[in-house]
Amino acid sequence: MRVKLFRTIAFSIFGxxxxxxxxxxxxxxxxxxxxILYPLHEVQQTxxxxxxxxxxxxxxxxxxxxxxxxxxxxxxxxxxGQTRRTIAATLEMxxxxxxxYPKPEFGITATRIGxxxxxxxxxxxxxxTFGSLLxxxxxxxxxxxxxxxxxxxxxxxxxxxxDMVTKLLPDHDVYITDWKNARDIPADKGDFGxxxxxxxxxxxxxxxxxxxxxxxxxxxxxPTLAAVALLAKEKLGxxxxxxxxxxxxxxxxxxxxxxxxxxxxxxxxxxAENMIGEVPDKYAGAGRLVYPGFxxxxxxxxxxxxxxxxxxxxxxxxxxxxxxxxxxKIKAFxxxxxxxCDLPEKFYLETLQKVFIDQELARGLLTHAGVKVDPSAIxxxxxxxxxxxxxxxxxxxxxxxAHALCSGLAQKKKFHxxxxxxxxxxxxxGHSWNDDIALRLMxxxxxxxxxNGIAYDPAxxxxxxxxxxxxxxxxxxxxxxxxxxx
Length: 486
Known about the structure:
14 strands, Rossmann fold
């Protein structure tokens, strides 16, 4: 009975929430909806807490009855202990499913280089209104490739890429963009759109210099390619050595997904009216219009509600049985996954319009500050595209479009890899990333440096580097993977 009730509550969280928000919009009107979106979310969290607490109260009554009967030897002690654990598990699930998760810490204080443990210090290399450039400074004199990870601004914090940073640190000098939560940025600090994102990436590349290697993931691939194209067109000396695009929507026409179909079905006005909320007074960004992170989270979870429900049911069972190690593993994942941040309204709507609806970069229509973005101007920066065979957010084909777009780049500078067993998140975390993709990225980066006359210190394990012959030639990509031409 308790399990059945928990499953019902959990499925309501992960499967129905987004639909309920949309239904409310129909009956309230846009202005009122913008005002109540946050309060509505808080009411929902309070209701969930009340539901779980009601179950816990019922269990407490059962526990009290069992304890009263204990002197008479009626309830077995194992049954009494199990009831207590179930009550504690229910209360913990109540808290976990009805709270806002704070921004996680990277928590990276050391890395292993060969046989040595090397201290790592997290520093802010540049601080801007909507995002910072973080540097994971290693206490070593090694000359390793300098990597700038351009994290996506898509609802999660950059800490979602912790696995990527951790894996790269032994053999690279790692930087990452750390986008801020829009709800915490005062409204008088101005707005932030796709143009601003591109400007930030250009500025960060300029600060790090021409020996930089870029790694862009998911949403960040479009503005990153635009930034490199603009630097190439301006013929500035800070053009990066290489750029790696992983699971990015560079041409969404190439392979449809749930995301692209939604963009095709709905107008930009629909998204503006249904997905934009006003930050309430209790936050620093009061009055700012945003795409709330909790809506993005519900959208992701609604794609696989059964999986998330099963995971939380498994967590509940582990807590009830006292399996701490197994429970902690699930909690660690969801502590990260459930920590979300709001996106500026302008950036969210412009990304939808220009990337998913109009495919402006792929069709040669994207401009930045009035200047046309032309990827064919790129001739120096080597290109690697990586896709996941099981990616249902950015399907294979959308990222390989970069090869056709970068038509001015020599074929010997173009590389591709399809990780057949990886989904979207598996491209930068988990076994696919750690056991295969990371080694390919490391090999590509070092080759790009060597091709430009840079002598890096040897990799920690040179035997694991991937030879050029093991790469997939972009020209051999199946036609259905690049259905459209720019």
